[in-house]
## 1
Amino acid sequence: MKSLILYRSEYGSTEQYARWIGEELSSQHDVIDNLSKYDMEDYDLIIVGEGVYAGQMKAAKRLVPIIERYPDKRFIFFIVGIADMEDKVNRDKLYSDLAKAMGPAIEKTKVFFLRGVLDYSKMNLKHKSMMWMLVNYLKKKPKKDLPKDGDQLISTYGKKVSFIDKKSIEPLVEFAKGKLPDENIEP
Ligand SMILES: Cc1cc2nc3c(=O)[nH]c(=O)nc-3n(C[C@H](O)[C@H](O)[C@H](O)COP(=O)(O)O)c2cc1C
């Protein structure tokens, strides 16, 4: 089985996951902007990953024409976000954001959820102000209406939080190696 990993990463956590997955599968990883360098015919499995920003998944949109052109290949998409991925509410939200980006092509894609990093010292101005707006919006909500990890977003505002974890790639790697059932994965 030959696989290719393509990713979009603004601050490096998705890139780190892509590197780890690449090591486990002995496959090449590259930024999705270099997509045209590769002939998809050469691969059995195409893995795409990206860090999510306010629900936006740009790399996912670039996977769609590949799925449409090569429907018999296997596809994995991994989402990297700061949300608690153990929480089904968060996974459902991210899955529905992904479904919006991919349309029906999502049915052919196995989806995994991995947790990343928030480091305010590295954020660009646009991202800093988006986080400022989000945290201020959350602060105004009554505690009972806060999302489960809302408190954590408020208390870690301005700091660095990292949930990056090599072990969390294991189910993806097992699936890629064909050791887990091949049905489309509802989150
Ligand atoms: C402005 C902004 C918006 C974000 N929006 C989301 C989001 O909607 N859901 C989520 O789980 N994480 C969100 N995150 C967290 C990022 O997805 C997380 O930091 C991830 O590790 C980024 O991946 P990267 O380092 O590969 O760019 C956001 C981060 C920033 C700075």
## 2
Amino acid sequence: MSYLYSKLLTNIVLPLGDVLTRNQIMKYYNLYDKMQWMNKHSIRAYQDNKLIETLSIAYKEVPFYNNLYTKHGVDINSIKTINDLHRLPVVTKSDLRKSYPDGCTRSTKFPWREYCTSGSSGNPFAVRVDNETMSMARALMFLRADYSGWNIGDPYLQTGMSLDRGIVRKLKDILLKVEYASAFDLSDRVLDMYLDLIERKKLDYFMGYAGSLYCVAERALAVGFNTPLKGVVSWGDNLYAHYREKIERAFKCRVTDTYGCGEGIQIAAQCGRDDGAYHIFMPHVALEVVDDDGNPVPPGHGGNIVLTRLHPGAMPLIRYWVGDIGVKSGEESCPCGRGFELLAKVEGRDTDVVVTPRGNRLIVHFFTGIFEYYKSIDTFKVIQEERSRITVLIVPCPNFRLEHWESLKSEILEKGDPDLHVDMKLVDEIPLERSNKRRFVVSTIRS
Ligand SMILES: [Zn+2]
């Protein structure tokens, strides 16, 4: 039955939904699903073609890249493969921010939306993403979930930050058998509701932000929850070793972590290997690990992650400095049989959970979900040193006004906990942690 339902969704219902909503999710899902089993040579050839196409469009249609490559004296015709990428200059968020939107976007025939992201850097930053790029990213969201053993149509619980699901999303939730849970409120009462939902609706899979999965797992262990799941998929913040251990113990199954960023790029997912390496979604993104000057570092060595989305879309991202640290794996193949290259490790999403006076748990996405709408804030960091109080460090943009803070603060109180004392401190900069990482929620107390 579930096999038939999965086929019905994959082959008929979802493709029809794509037509009605002007998306192409299933087209790309089928492509990526097939490509992951191809040999590396063929996947590389596909990447190289996509790179040449993306570069040529960006150079012709996007002033930002045209000026950049002209200034650096790069002949883009000499860039023929992924291995040539290192000859192009890297691009930072602040470079793009300066020329947004007119200088770094282009028009495509698809409708687009602006996504504001705090990503892991803490800097709100706008990216224009069109429907085609978003379809690719959504296709990869299905694929990343597949790596846990989940199939389209298997019922699951998902935590997230979008409270208003809208009609299309609600319909999709019903068809895909998703129970959607808000990660804004993670108090004991709500966590018990989620555990109850898993049992009552016989949900076999659980997906969401690593921090929220951890909070649910902690509660499950505390109340003696005893229903094994088949798989857990995490994303967003860092899946620490102690998060993984607790989640796997609570739900008696494997957690497969995934790596993506809010800029319309899904990057990689774990396939369940013991060493925890991630398969990079090669048809969608070229991932380089480079030193501080942008030069490639060999596999096995840590460096900065630089991404090239292999599709120009409404805002090309070529050698984009995402702000995370990673290590490529030297292994050429994986026992699971997938041909996508391996990323041994990714870091840079380190955060803590803030436990409030009333017992709510605020994960990093609680804060980014609020801060990303305030463009007058350059960077922020939340520090909790006592249970009743948090201090928010803010690096303001020139257009920052005190009203922005007032409204932000009331959102934190309303969605988080009205009993929390929230202080603000304006600062000129927030120093990075070791190895250039930014931890933007730090709690020094243990719940
Ligand atoms: Zn694998």
